[in-house]
Amino acid sequence: MQKINKVVNMNLAGGVIGLLTTNPRRSLDNLIDKHNQDGWNVVQVIPGGDRNLFMLILKLVILLCTLGLYTFGAGYLLIMEKDKA
Hints:
The protein is α+β, with helices and mostly antiparallel strands. The chain has three helices and five strands; from the N terminus they run E-E-H-H-E-H-E-E. The longest helix has 14 residues, at about 25-35. About 5% of the residues are buried.
């Protein structure tokens, strides 16, 4: 049987707000559960990183403009698969 794959990007909040309100484990559990209900299985979870210089600079600018309160976090990449119908 053939498998189909997809990559899901999960972003997390950063800064002081993200530090106080974001629980990465709960966020991962909720996202994985949602996709499991649609028949997808997680194959691998990869921590996201800033490999794009423009995005890194944008994150720092947003963090400075909000006085350290908020920026978008790196998050995770989830590799998922399911059987082809």
